């Protein structure tokens, strides 16, 4: 098994454990965030276990339909994307078991694997035949492509800075002091990446693709029952997995689950806070936003490295 | 001005006059007439170039063969002119025949009317 | 182009061309002595060809190929003039030159003159190697006989067919004579296939008189053919 | 040996003999004519053969037993014999061609024809100046006579204009002759060379003689009369007028320029060049077939005149080059004029009638290729030699003008060819067996000529190159059913691959594999075609032949010849598409333009050596090297369709046939990439004005990658989308290559392989869809996933691979890319590449979504899966992609090692199947393992939960209340990324399209304006003639003082 | 100035004058006749230039035959043009 260095079956167990923790954490955290949002807005909000209720309800739903193979596979792709992403990045620095399968690749793998789920989801929704889902997909794709740009630039700046593409090595380089974090050693790259982060978290002002409140469009409207359950799982998992990447790259990673929980929550809250205070952009507005702010900062980041 | 110069000048002037007529006259027949004048001019030039002042025609009936080289004028241009005259006539005849056919085709002898082929 | 520029542009051009000619004119000085070609002819013609008239010798032998081309030009012209006019028959009715009245006098005069003219033409081309004149001049004279007949609207015109026969046979014989020169003498159109004879007599200069006679016939026939074609075409077919 | 004089004698004798025949015996007269012409041809040919074989020595024929200059002499050497043969044969064939009209006009016309041929032969052989004049007058008069053969009444006017002009010319000539005689004391041409000019006016006399003869060549712009003749005369005569008269007169001019010495050579060069350029530019505006041929004749003769002047000191080489051009021109132009006799109507588009007879189309193509200097025809060698000579003397502006004019000429000719292939004729073909025979003899002569010319070139004989012959083999085989031909084609490719892999380095090996074996694979799809599929296999095999030869070439000549082969082959292939005419034209124009840039580059690099090894590119003199680099790069970038030079690509690739698109996209583009590889491998970094050219390439690559992707995202046409995507992908490859480091090159290699696989696959899949739906517009498709599942799978795999999403092989490319850019200092162009990545994802998604997902259209509810043979290669590609993604090492490791030897480094460490770089890791098997494990687990989970899911149909809610005026605009697939367009639409601005359209319009406008110069008035033509003479006089006076 | 030169000058003036008349006259007939006259003067000039052969030819062909050719064609054209 040279392709899987030092492979032990226990790794699978640890990976599953990581997965379990992250999913649950994601469930609770998103609920908490919604609750906070509600309270800020003067409402009562949902209970923190609401996500579990929804999940169970969806799984239990009896009527189950399918529009075709791709429709069926869409959520599978989606969740595979989320899980895979988590598997390919190390979660807890220094803990061998929580390196997951990060030896399969490096930063590039993670960056590109993000698209795996997006693609599958889009395809699945597409097959449903509902034109609104297609519109949602096209909007989402259009926006995300521009949003990813500052991230790519930031990451490039970062890898130039550390001279490596290996996430573990990048985290290692930030250990020791809080001032070793990329946030401080390379603030411009961090800002660039954070612009991308905000842009891809599917929250206001960049949530026109989902736009759940106003128009019933977007992939989620097409799915129900256990499909939706899978997707819901992913919606808990995927943001966290993504935040993990940002955390590892820019905020010193995490050496323990506690640190992990705090950093992920804080980072997540950044997008929430911005979302709360900003009205929604139209797609072209957000694209222009990324071109006007994200791009120059990203360029600056790689130029000053 | 000696004989040769006068002849040469006449020849050249005839050529220029002929060409001027050929290039400015719209009547096809008058163009052809002008060309014959120019042809005549060419012939005069040719003969004049071959002339050696004071010498005689290259016919050895009265000139002894031994003295021929010092007494006759250059025969070559004369031979050429003979040919040129005949060729000139041939071309003139041909142009006249064409002129007639063109006239038959269009009822006109104006060169500027035969411009349906262009560009 | 308006009237003035239509004439002014050629004028300017020809003035420029005139300057070219002037350069030639100004740079020209007549030779003092014969150049090498001419002096060769002056000294060698008699020995080579036996002709008195150097110009004739040059035309018929040294530059025989030119002359062959020259009669071919006339042959071509005759053929083409025939072609050009073949398809545009003149309207029925009066033929003739159209501006000379063809009266009794002219007709009679023509009948009397034609044989004389023909004889004179033959004289000119047969003596071409001795005196000025030759096939072309003689041919032109022969053609003038034809001209007279055309002018007089004489009924007994030469048949076009006969003219064409004479023309072709003369041409063919000319070419064959040239070939004979290649076979039996020094080269194409060499006149020495026949003996050079005694210098200055009519039967001298080898094949020159023969060739010049052929040329005369041919040129005469060709001129006649052209004249006939141009004059009227009813009988050209 | 019989005396060459017999050529003249036979012509004249027969002409006179005709007069003795009876008027009614036209038939006999015709046989006499043909017999005489046959005899003349025989004599000339026997001299040609004997002289060429060295059995006889060149002879001087003296007349009247006197030595020149005292009597006229003729000469029979190899050039004279060859050209006399050409003239006599064309005369013979034209006589056969004009049989009916000759018989109609009678024996006189035949005599005129005989005299014309005789005079032309005389013009070629004579060494006497005045004799030259006599022959010219004979030619003029005979031509004026033969013009009458035409039924077109306008010919009369044309003939008269010709006579007017000839009068002026003969006046100038006679004056010149007599003053030359006065100066030299001789009329012999050889004496002009021997005797120094005696007096000041002599040079002026020489000028008059030369300019008069040059005027007979119809130099631009003093040539309006000639064009009128070409347009209105009988095509049989036009063939003579262009081919035979042009050839003979040009040789006469050559004789005189040789005699007059090198001082006069620039005169010929200048007039020739002006003529070549002017005629070709003006030809752009022509839509009348014969007049176009006239312009082309003028241009070609101008070209030879230029060679005559330029190559004045080449010795035998001049005869080789000028002769090749001249004879090619004679054969091709005669053939084309004869063909025009079979086309009834006169517009260029009416040549479409030729399609009724495929053999004639082949002949047409042959003639066009001969004229445009494509291999293996002699003009190709001539062009090569000429440009190399220009480079040797560092006459770069001349070279540029020449090449641009040659390009315009090719554009004119191929525009016409395209019309003939794609338009509809208004009148059917005027078929006539003897006419066809004549044309086919000309075509055969063209090929024989190439066969003879090849070995003389000192290079390979291109006619006998095996792959090329293999391509030609399909011409006779075209009567077989397509499937049988396909088997032969595949077998041929495979055999060639197997036999030619020895001794190639891994890099070339991979390119050869893609090009030849890949080609064989793609040909599997061609089994789908039914019937005979005439005209597919020859061009296809020609293209593959070019590519096979390209990879194995070692000299610049081989490389360039191969390049032209593949260009021409692919042009014909592209032209086969339904609406591809304009696109094929822009393809061939750009490609030939690129090819000419290559030619110029090689020529400059060779510095006078006509054989130049590619590996010597590394030793080009440093002051030249950057320019060589720029030129070669421009040539290759045209082929890879880098932004700015790309406008030919989308149309060409999109409009091509289903199985052709993958060939021209997946395979053909790699030829450009291969060239770039060779270029940067041999030449390395070059600096021009302090700019590192590889950096420029990096930028170009990045811009192409980005803009190509953006444009692809905005396409409505699926194949166009893929075409723009190719531009983008090639941009990546170029980018990698230009990084000039190990990983960059590996990246380029990776892209070469990947792009071949997935672009072929996608084009096949989309093509298969198009076969069924009969549209390429994506908004007209939709919901085809259930109907065409296999096509869907291949598109799915294709887009995953292409967008670089793990685990498929595209990711490998991206991984290498990141590692490559880590080691370079170039950061700004990276940004564009970063932007290109996600945009690429956009267009790919659009492709799959709008075709296969969403709701099926009513009219497409019953379409079937794509044909088996189109699917088969796709499935093979899918398998390959998966295998390559999991085990990239099986190919890449060798290439990596090879590149390592070039750079002397080893940035990648291959441990088993794991690839480590200095910066990161790529463990393809692990990636696969994890993803499959997770995917299967989740899927099983879903199946467990959802095993009883119920299949429901979609419901149609596309239109709400009313049907809009343009229904497709309301479809989601229309303007799919509308917001994106709002934000990024400025990138769509057709800058380069506008630029090239502007260039083209400017040229056409110039042509349209300038041709008004030819007013049609004979007098004006004469004035122009004089104007020309005076202008040349003043210019040469100015130049010599 | 010798007699020869004087005659030549006279001929030159005469032939040039005839040529000018040929160009400026309105009548084609006069033009043709003048052109013939030019030829005739030229042929005399050839005699002065010691070229009797040429003189004969020019007189017979240049001024004689050519003129008649013109008149023939002119005649035909007149006849047909007036109908």
From TrEMBL, chain E:
It comes from the Bacteria. Its main location: membrane. It is a multi-pass membrane protein. One of its GO terms (cellular component) is plasma membrane. Residues 15-79 form the MrpA C-terminal/MbhD domain. Signal peptide: none annotated. InterPro entries: MrpA_C/MbhD, Nuo/plastoQ_OxRdtase_6_NuoJ. Keywords: Cell membrane, Membrane, Transmembrane, Transmembrane helix. It is found in: Cell membrane. The chain crosses the membrane at residues 29-52, 59-77. This is MrpA C-terminal/MbhD domain-containing protein. It comes from Celeribacter ethanolicus. The lineage of its organism: Bacteria, Pseudomonadati, Pseudomonadota, Alphaproteobacteria, Rhodobacterales.
């Amino acid at each position: 098994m040279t392709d899987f260095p030092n492979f032990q079956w226990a790794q699978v167990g640890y990976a599953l454990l990581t997965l379990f923790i992250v999913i649950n954490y994601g469930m609770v955290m998103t609920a908490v965030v919604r609750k906070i949002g509600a309270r800020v807005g003067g409402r009562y909000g949902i209970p923190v276990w609401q996500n579990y209720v929804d999940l169970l309800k969806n799984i239990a739903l009896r009527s189950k339909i399918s529009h075709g193979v791709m429709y069926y596979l869409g959520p599978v792709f989606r969740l595979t994307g989320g899980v895979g992403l988590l598997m390919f990045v190390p979660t807890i620095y220094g803990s061998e078991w929580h390196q997951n399968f990060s030896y399969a690749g490096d930063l590039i793998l993670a960056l590109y694997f993000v698209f795996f789920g997006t693609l599958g989801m889009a395809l699945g929704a597409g097959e449903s035949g509902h034109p609104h889902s297609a519109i949602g997909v096209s909007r989402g794709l259009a926006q995300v492509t521009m949003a990813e740009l500052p991230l790519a630039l930031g990451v490039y700046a970062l890898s130039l800075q550390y001279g490596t593409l290996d996430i573990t090595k990048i985290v290692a380089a930030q250990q020791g002091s809080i001032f070793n974090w990329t946030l401080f050693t390379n603030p411009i790259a961090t800002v660039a990446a954070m612009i991308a982060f905000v842009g891809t978290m599917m929250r206001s002002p960049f949530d026109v693709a989902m736009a759940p409140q106003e128009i019933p469009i977007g992939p989620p409207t097409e799915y129900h029952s256990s499909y939706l359950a899978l997707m819901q799982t992913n919606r808990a998992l995927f943001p966290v997995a993504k935040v993990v990447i940002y955390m590892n790259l820019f905020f010193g990673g995490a050496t323990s689950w506690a640190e992990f929980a705090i950093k992920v929550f804080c980072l997540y809250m950044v997008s929430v806070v911005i979302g709360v205070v900003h009205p929604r952009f139209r797609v072209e507005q957000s694209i222009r936003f990324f071109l006007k702010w994200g791009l120059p900062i990203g360029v600056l980041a790689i130029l000053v490295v | 001005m000696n004989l040769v110069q006068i002849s040469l000048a006449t020849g050249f002037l005839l050529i220029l006059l002929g060409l001027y007529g050929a290039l400015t006259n719209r009547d096809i027949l008058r163009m052809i007439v002008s060309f014959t004048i120019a042809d005549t001019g060419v012939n005069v030039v040719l003969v004049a170039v071959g002339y050696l002042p004071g010498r005689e025609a290259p016919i050895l009936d009265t000139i002894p063969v031994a003295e021929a080289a010092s007494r006759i004028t250059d025969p070559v241009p004369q031979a050429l002119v003979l040919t040129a005259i005949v060729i000139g006539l041939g071309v003139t005849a041909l142009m006249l025949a064409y002129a007639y056919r063109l006239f038959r085709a269009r009822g006109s002898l104006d060169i500027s009317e035969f411009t349906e082929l262009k560009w | 182009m308006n009237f003035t520029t239509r004439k002014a542009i050629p004028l300017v051009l020809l003035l420029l061309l005139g300057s070219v000619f002037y350069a030639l004119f100004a740079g020209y000085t007549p030779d003092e002595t014969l150049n090498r070609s001419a002096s060769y002819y002056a000294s060698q013609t008699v020995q080579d060809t036996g002709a008195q008239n150097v110009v004739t010798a040059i035309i018929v032998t040294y530059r025989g190929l030119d002359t062959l081309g020259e009669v071919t030009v006339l042959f071509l012209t005759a053929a083409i003039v025939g072609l050009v006019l073949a398809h545009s028959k003149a309207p029925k009715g009066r033929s003739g030159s159209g501006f000379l009245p063809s009266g009794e006098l002219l007709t009679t005069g023509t009948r009397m003159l034609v044989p004389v003219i023909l004889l004179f033409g033959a004289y000119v081309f047969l003596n071409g190697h001795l005196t000025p004149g030759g096939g072309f001049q003689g041919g032109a004279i022969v053609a003038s006989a034809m001209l007279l007949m055309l002018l007089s609207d004489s009924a007994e015109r030469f048949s076009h067919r006969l003219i064409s026969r004479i023309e072709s046979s003369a041409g063919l014989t000319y070419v064959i004579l040239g070939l004979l020169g290649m076979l039996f003498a020094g080269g194409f159109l060499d006149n020495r296939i026949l003996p050079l004879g005694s210098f200055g007599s009519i039967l001298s200069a080898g094949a020159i008189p023969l060739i010049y006679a052929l040329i005369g016939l041919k040129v005469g026939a060709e001129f006649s053919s052209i004249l006939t074609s141009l004059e009227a075409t009813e009988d050209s077919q | 040996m019989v005396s060459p004089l017999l050529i003249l004698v036979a012509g004249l004798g027969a002409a006179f003999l005709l007069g003795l025949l009876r008027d009614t015996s036209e038939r006999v007269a015709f046989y006499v004519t043909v017999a005489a012409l046959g005899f003349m041809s025989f004599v000339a040919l026997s001299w040609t053969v004997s002289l060429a074989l060295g059995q006889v020595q060149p002879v001087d024929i003296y007349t009247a037993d006197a030595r020149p200059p005292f009597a006229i002499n003729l000469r029979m050497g190899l050039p004279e014999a060859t050209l006399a043969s050409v003239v006599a044969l064309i005369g013979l064939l034209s006589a056969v061609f004009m049989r009916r009209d000759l018989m109609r006009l009678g024996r006189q016309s035949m005599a005129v024809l005989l005299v014309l041929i005789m005079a032309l032969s005389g013009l070629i052989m004579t060494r006497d100046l005045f004799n030259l004049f006599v022959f010219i007058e004979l030619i003029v008069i005979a031509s004026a006579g033969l013009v009458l053969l035409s039924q077109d009444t306008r010919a009369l006017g044309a003939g008269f204009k010709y006579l007017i002009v000839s009068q002026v010319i003969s006046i100038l000539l006679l004056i010149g002759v007599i003053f030359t005689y006065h100066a030299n004391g001789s009329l012999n041409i050889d004496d002009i060379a021997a005797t120094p000019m005696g007096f000041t006016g002599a040079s002026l006399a020489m000028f008059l003689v030369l300019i008069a003869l040059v005027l007979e060549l119809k130099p631009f712009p003093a040539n309006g009369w000639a064009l009128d003749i070409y347009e209105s005369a009988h095509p049989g005569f036009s063939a003579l007028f262009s081919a035979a008269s042009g050839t003979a007169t040009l040789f006469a001019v050559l004789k005189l320029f040789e005699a007059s010495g090198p001082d006069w050579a620039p005169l010929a060069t200048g007039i020739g060049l002006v003529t070549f350029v002017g005629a070709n530019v003006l030809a752009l505006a022509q839509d009348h077939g014969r007049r176009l041929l006239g312009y082309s004749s003028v241009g070609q003769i101008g070209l030879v005149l230029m060679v005559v002047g330029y190559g004045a000191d080449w010795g035998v080489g001049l005869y080789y080059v000028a002769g090749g051009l001249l004879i090619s021109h004679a054969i091709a132009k005669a053939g084309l004029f004869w063909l025009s006799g079979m086309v009834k109507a006169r517009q260029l588009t009416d040549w479409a009638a030729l399609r009724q007879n495929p053999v004639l189309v082949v002949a047409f193509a042959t003639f066009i290729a001969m004229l445009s200097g494509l291999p293996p025809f002699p003009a190709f060698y001539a062009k090569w030699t000429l440009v190399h000579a220009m480079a040797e003397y560092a006459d770069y502006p001349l070279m540029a003008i020449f090449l641009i004019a040659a390009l315009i000429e090719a554009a004119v000719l191929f525009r016409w060819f395209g019309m003939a292939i794609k338009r509809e004729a208004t009148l059917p073909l005027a078929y006539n067996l003897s006419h066809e025979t004549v044309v086919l003899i000309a075509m055969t002569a063209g090929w024989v000529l190439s066969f003879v010319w090849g070995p003389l070139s000192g290079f390979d004989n291109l006619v006998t190159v095996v792959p090329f012959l293999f391509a030609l083999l399909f011409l006779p085989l075209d009567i077989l059913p397509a499937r049988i031909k396909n088997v032969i084609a595949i077998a041929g490719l495979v055999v060639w691959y197997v036999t030619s892999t020895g001794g190639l380095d891994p890099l070339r090996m991979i390119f050869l594999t893609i090009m030849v074996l890949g080609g064989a694979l793609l040909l599997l799809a061609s089994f789908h075609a039914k019937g005979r599929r005439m005209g597919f296999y020859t061009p296809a095999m020609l293209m593959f032949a070019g590519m096979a030869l390209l990879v194995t070439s070692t000299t610049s000549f081989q490389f360039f010849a191969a390049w032209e082969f593949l260009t021409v082959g692919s042009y014909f292939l592209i032209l086969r598409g339904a609406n591809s005419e304009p696109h094929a034209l822009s393809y061939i124009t750009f490609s030939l333009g690129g090819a000419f840039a290559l030619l110029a580059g090689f020529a400059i690099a060779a510095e006078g050596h006509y054989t130049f090894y590619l590996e010597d590119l590394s030793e080009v003199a440093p002051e030249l090297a950057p320019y060589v680099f720029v030129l070669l790069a421009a040539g290759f970038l045209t082929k890879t369709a880098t932004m700015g030079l790309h406008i030919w690509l989308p149309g060409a690739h999109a409009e091509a046939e289903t199985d052709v698109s993958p060939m021209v996209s997946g395979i053909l583009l790699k030829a450009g990439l291969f060239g770039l590889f060779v270029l940067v491998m041999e030449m390395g970094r070059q600096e021009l004005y302090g700019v590192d050219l590889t950096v420029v390439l990096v930028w170009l690559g990045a811009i192409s990658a980005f803009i190509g992707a953006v444009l692809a995202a905005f396409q409505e046409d699926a194949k166009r989308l893929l075409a723009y995507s190719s531009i983008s992908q090639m941009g990546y490859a170029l980018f990698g290559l230009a990084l000039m480091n190990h990983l960059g090159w590996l990246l380029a290699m990776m892209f070469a392989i990947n792009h071949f696989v997935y672009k072929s696959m996608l084009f096949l899949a989309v093509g298969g869809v198009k076969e069924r739906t009969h549209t390429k517009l994506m908004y007209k498709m939709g919901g085809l996933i259930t109907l065409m599942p296999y096509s869907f799978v291949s598109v799915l795999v294709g887009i995953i691979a292409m967008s670089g999403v793990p685990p498929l092989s595209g990711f490998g490319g991206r991984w290498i890319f990141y590692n490559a850019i880590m080691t370079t200092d170039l950061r700004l162009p990276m940004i564009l590449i970063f932007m290109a990545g996600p945009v690429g994802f956009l267009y790919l998604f659009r492709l799959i979504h709008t075709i296969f997902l969403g709701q099926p259209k009513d009219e497409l509810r019953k379409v079937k899966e794509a044909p088996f043979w189109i699917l088969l290669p796709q499935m093979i590609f899918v398998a390959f992609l998966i295998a390559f993604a999991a085990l990239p090492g099986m190919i890449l490791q060798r290439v990596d090692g090879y590149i390592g030897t070039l750079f002397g480094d080893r940035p990648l460490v291959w441990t088993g199947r794991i690839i480590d770089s200095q910066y990161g890791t790529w463990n393809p098997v692990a990636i696969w393992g994890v993803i499959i494990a997770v995917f299967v687990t989740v899927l099983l989970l879903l199946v467990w939960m959802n095993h009883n899911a119920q299949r429901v149909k979609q419901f149609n809610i596309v239109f709400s209340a009313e049907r809009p005026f343009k229904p497709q605009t309301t479809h989601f697939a229309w303007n799919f990324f509308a917001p994106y367009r709002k934000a990024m639409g400025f990138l769509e601005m057709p800058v380069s399209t506008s630029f090239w359209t502007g260039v083209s319009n400017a040229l056409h406008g110039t042509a349209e304006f300038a041709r008004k110069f030819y007013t049609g008035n004979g007098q004006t033509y004469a004035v122009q003639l004089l104007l020309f003479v005076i202008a040349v006089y003043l210019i040469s006076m100015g130049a010599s003082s | 100035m010798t007699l020869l030169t004087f005659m030549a000058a006279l001929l030159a003036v005469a032939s040039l004058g005839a040529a000018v008349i040929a160009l400026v006259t309105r009548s084609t007939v006069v033009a043709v006749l003048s052109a013939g006259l030019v030829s005739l003067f030229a042929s005399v000039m050839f005699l002065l230039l010691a070229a009797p052969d040429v003189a004969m030819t020019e007189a017979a062909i240049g001024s004689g035959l050519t003129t008649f050719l013109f008149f023939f064609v002119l005649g035909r054209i007149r006849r047909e043009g007036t109908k």
